[in-house]
Design goal:
This protein is an alpha/beta fold. It has one domain: Rossmann fold. It contains seven helices and ten strands. The strands form two sheets. The protein has a six-stranded mixed β-sheet, sandwiched between helices. Strands 2-1-4-5 form a four-stranded antiparallel β-sheet, with helices on one face. Helix 3 (119-128) runs parallel beside helix 5. The longest helix is centred in the C-terminal third of the chain and has 16 residues, at 193-208.
Amino acid sequence: MNTTAPSKEKTNRSSNDEPIIRIEDMRKTYQMGTIQVHALQGVSLTINEGAYLAIMGSSGSGKSTLLNMLGCLDRPTSGNYFLGDTNVAQLDDDQLSDIRGQRIGFVFQSYNLIDQLTVLENIHVPLFYQGKDSPEHFERCKELAVRVGLGKRLDHRPAELSGGQQQRVAIARSLANDPLVILADEPTGNLDSQTEEEILQLLDELHESGKTIIMVTHDDHVADRAERVIHLKDGLIYREVQNR
């Protein structure tokens, strides 16, 4: 992989020295019948506020498990995970749900929009689950739609949008709760090359504005947009590349 990012990306905002994520010897073991699968085997990682990190690895490397841990969708078998000043590895399911709703924004390869809802309503979903449905909250969602270039599509439903537009809705939705971290799982995996570039540019702009972005990808070209790339193999970090 090219360890030098394209020149137009070198103006991106660099992360500061304040850790927003700290993982200490994280391990995750799944029991599959009589077989134990060691998906993570002692991962330690620090991510600073405002960072742009890519996670790469082949199937079975542990990258999806790591993303699930970072997104508080699962708990490690052992080890610590500090998100901000909270050790989320020790929280119960209800507390993890609260953390997901308040501190983490998700962008998925398959968009995960609700077909029956409009663009505006899909963006509002994270706030809805927190009981935040005042006019001010809907106004924030409208502003986010404008920010991702969908200000004139507020009343459209997912079926009326292109794949790139649906991913823009997903990105706006990830920002609705003003999260500490945006987690993007193969965010351009279903897009053509031109639309991929548009979505990557949007992520660049979010990074430049100060957002912390962690992205799983299998594509070197996509990973080159990040400041830092970690490669997983057999549940361990075996290589790290600093792009800038």
